[in-house]
Amino acid sequence: MSYILTFTSTHGAILAEKTLLQAGHSVGVMPLPSGIKAGCGIALRVADYIGAKSLLQENNIVVAAVYQAMLNSQETVYSEVKG
Fold first, then answer.
1. What's residue 73's pLDDT?
2. DSSP one-letter string for 10-53
3. pLDDT (tens digit per residue) in 1-53
4. How many domains does the chain have?
5. Would you say 67 and 78 are in contact if contact means Cβ atoms under 8 Å apart?
6. Domain Putative Se/S carrier protein-like: where (predicted)?
7. What three-state secondary structure class fits 58?
8. If you ran DSSP here, which 8-state letter would residue 54 be given?
9. By CB atoms within 10 Å of each CB, which of 21, 57, 58, 73 scores lowest?
10. CA 83, CA 80: separation in Å to the nearest integer?
11. What is the CATH number of the domain that holds 23?
């Protein structure tokens, strides 16, 4: 299972990627999926969203939203994770 982190700015997404990589997290940069209608156009895919979000908060990097990516029979469906 993977999670998608969105940001309000490209700068925030790039800074978040750098911070997560330096801490040893597995991170993938991707265009914002069409199923998500918020964010700057760049998103990060992570496996450990709790650890990633916590690290980013410690470094004052704001995550706009977190989405869980689930593959159904034909497509990937994104549902927002609250909290």
1. 83
2. HHHHHHHHHHHHHTT--EEEEEPPTT---SSSEEEEES-HHHHH
3. 899 999 999 999 999 999 999 999 999 999 999 888 877 899 999 999 999 99
4. 1
5. yes
6. 3-68
7. helix
8. H
9. 73
10. 10
11. 3.30.70.1530
